[in-house]
Amino acid sequence: MAGQGIQRRQVLRILGTAAAAAQFPGFSRWGFACGHIGNAALQIKPGAYAPQFFSAAEYATVERLTEIIIPSDATPGAKEAGVAEFIDFMVANDPDAQYGFRTGITWLDAYAEQSTGKRFMGLTPEQQTSLLEPLGFKDKARPGQDAGRRFFAMMREYTVTGFYTSKIGFEELDNPALKFYAESPECPHKDDREHKHLSQAKS
Amino acid sequence: MANQIYDVIVIGTGAGGGMAIKTLCEAGLKVCALNAGRRLDPEKDFRYHRMPWDMKFHGLDDPKRRGESFGYMDNEYTKAAWDHEIPFTTPPGMKWMWPRCNAVGGKTNFWGRSSARFGDIDFRAASLDGCDVDWPITHDEISPFYTRVEKMIGVASTVQNRPSNPDGSYLPPFKFRCLDYILQAGCDQVGVPYLPDRCAQLTQPHEGHPACHFCGECTTGCDVGSFFSTPYFLLPKAEATKNLELRTDALAKNVLVDENGQAKGVAYIDRKTKQEVEVYGRAVIVAASCIESARIMLNSKSRHWPNGIANSSGQLGRNLCDHLYGESARGSLPQLLGQPSFPDHVGDSTIAWMPRWQNLKDPHEEKFIRGYSVYPDGGCEEFPGFATDMDGFGSSFKREVKRRYPTPVSFGIQAPTLRSDTNFMDLDPEVKDPYGIPVARIHFEWDENVLKMWEHSKQVCAEVLRAAGGELEGTGDAPEIPGFSLHETGTCRMGNDPKKFVTNRFGQTHDVPNLYVCDAGVFLNCTDKTTTISILAFSLRTSEHLIENFRMGEHKAA
To answer: Whole-model pTM above 0.90?
Structure first.
């Protein structure tokens, strides 16, 4: 680690003091791939995770829900990012959150059985999605499902938190945090300061 | 060594103590500095560019510990740097949040870096509006010290010619982001200022310190020293003189007095051995931060000073002021929907400010007296907080998070309380810390004036956001708990009348001429500006006054 620190400081010294570097076009918004300190023990190893809190069946449900909330589509989603592992780990360390998750999963299975005769994980992906719509979309809400809506909101909050603090989540947003710049980055639209005429980027 | 008598004992190594230590050592005085915590190692103790996924809890901290967390800077990235072994109490019904960094350098390791000068509108506020008393100093007197501090630490800003904000000597400012130009246009319509903040962050190499690399994680510690902190900027200069002995894990307990009741040293607890140790000096500077300094002085009881040292006025610990912090308004800028991600967070929230615009011409123009400032912020931050309570799920949800990522904005208020008889600290008559020392008891509530500012700011910020073409999502429900800003002032106020003030206009205690205070305790109130640069400027002035007193023979050199 110490070696890396010195190397980094050298790079920064070059960035900070060499005026030429700031003028080199390739460096104008240069983000140095800093090779941050990675803790190998904490890296996600797909397929090898043993849940600490959830039972195997509960864990499968949690993982499926994360995948429905942030799916793989044009870009990787919550499953690839290992968000279920993050949730299991956080809940295992947070006694206050455990009751809500456990009863929430139970509620979801009861709701699925009542609606379709099968538990949640026994349903097709389409059935799962349509079952969740009244819980996840305000304008599709149905009365009498407050407990389920609260559980889904909590699942969504944990999924969002786990996903956008993962490397895959950072890449999804092209997160500019913790990159290095040679000078204070500036608005690129100074001819349109009120930003009324920006070209609409991909929606 | 055991019986060595130093010229000066300095308690604390934060902004006030650090400046005193450097100034005194360079003048050739022998200094023993006491610091309650340890030295930090930036590589181990600072964030050091670790990504959330490098952290066990993704930076969110252990849920079991989260309830005990004290404020926004004490988190999983820096958890060993903040130290809350010493408790404090509040009377029933009152709340106080008190993040403390006892490490060498104190809170300068993690501070917010906004660095506006106090002005005559602050020093002469009482003459203008009839509330409280004027400061015993003018901007003309303190201005040269501010200028020297600005050159020493490097402050990025522009000359702004605002009546409430004297200009200083500045490095090039941070450049405006998209959201700044949009909000600035809104401010123009509403008629409030939107300008580059005074930010002590090096936009270019300065005095041997590297320029900022704009990673945006300043409040978890800068690992290259591109913003002012005493361990990077002041202590190395003091150590180079060989006049400094810095004792760490040395928790100051009380100021020792001689047979005449004058300061002769400090008793401290060595936190490693848990033993009490005495260290002697010709003069003592207390710079342990506003409340802690007053606690040490109140705990310094002797037959000369039955109510605490230098407290013949009874004002020690009184007059506590603090900044009300809170999110006045929040919303989004639809102009930026779907735009590419942009490094909006490079200044870690201090790129722009809306400096005090109220009560400038007429001190009674508004329903409140004095004024407040606002810090706008937003854009692409490290975590898309808005997404945790967004509606829906699936690919549309994921796309919407990305689309909205550059758009959030918020306005944070910084508003000063007025001096009152009911906001103060004293010693808890029962509770003691693990070393048997009585703890601070903090009595504090927001006053009516500051709450009017809070209401006013909600209206104005909402108006600015709408004028900028933004969508208002809400105005603040409640301000933060008192103490959150870390800008407490007033426990050792300076003034010319020894019956009414603890310290004189130089920060020297009226009762004990060889005892000085070098922190925000000497300020009469907290104004609408942040405190650190003023602590540095006032400490520099106090330290030079002390050196002059040595030269004149008032304090005998060791």
So the answer is: yes
